[in-house]
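Q: Here's a chain of 364 amino acids. Please give me its 3D structure as tokens.
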Amino acid sequence: MTTGPLVGVRVLEFASIGPGPFCAMLLSDMGADVVRIDRPSGVAGTGPNAVLQRGRPSLVLDLKNAEECAIAARAAALADVLIEGNRPGVMERLVLGPEPLMAANPALIYARMTGYGQTGPQALTAGHDINYLGLVGALAAISDGKSPPRAPLNLLGDFGGGALYLAFGIVAALFERTRSGKGQIVDAAIVDGSASLMGMVFGALATGSLARDPNANLLSGAAPFYRCYACADGHYLAVGALEPQFYARFLEAMQVQDYARHQQRDPVFWAELSALLERKFASKTRAEWLTLLEPLDACISAVHTVEESLNDPHAVARDMFVEVNGMRQPAPAPRFSRTPGAVQGPMAKPGEGGREALARWGVS
């Protein structure tokens, strides 16, 4: 039996890459009835997409074929939510844009996932996560100022500023529909979401407290009390001793308490202290340092590899990872006390189970 807070919500997903599938996975994990429309050449469910494609059946349709396009339109007429991640104008050319589909189904939430949004001078421009982060200033903000900026995987743009805001927009629109009875278009642009995630940074800019020098930025890795250090065995520790009480414990444990005479947030001495701590951390293994530092409760922890994270005691205790068809993968999040989410099944191959799923909706 399907469980989760979104049980009963029907979602029609037009297959795309990255943030679109991740959003659909989140909705499926929360109990939504999601059906994915794949292209005839689709490779959904392979390689790194395997986890993102879990929990929903697939129907292969050639949307350039009028008869098969009509099947998609009939499905949209019975859906609560439609997700698409094409460039602006593509769905309109297929006659699957919001105007005809919402005329047939006024309660439809038409959710559009793009990099630059549906409007603006760059709306039709090709791009990826790194381009969107560059536009909103995120890449520059996380740069160390010594080497070219590096993207934080595609966590910040595609999945944070993109998929999570798309999912939030969908759920907000569904809630509003309970009052109005009407659907609406959700225009989720990665640049918009990424800019929103940068709210604290733009707040610092507006109030004159943004550090222009990356080496004076509290959270960029320049501060000796908020960065990672290499240990003797090549593993790393993450130090996040921001608060004064944590900072004091950290300095004492590392036997560098003389630096307490400086104002903690004065960047003048940061480079000197960082260099000293680098030498100290290089003298012991990660395990040795954890034995010494973890009892301090001063925000110091191991930097795990992806493989190590699967077996971390905290991850195991919270069941943060589940096994689906022999594949370890993140469990649904967040947790609900009465209506817990669950993985509805493994990835479906293109064309697997979709016709049966739409038949249950009443689509012929």
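Q: Can you summarize the key feature?
A: The mean pLDDT is 95.
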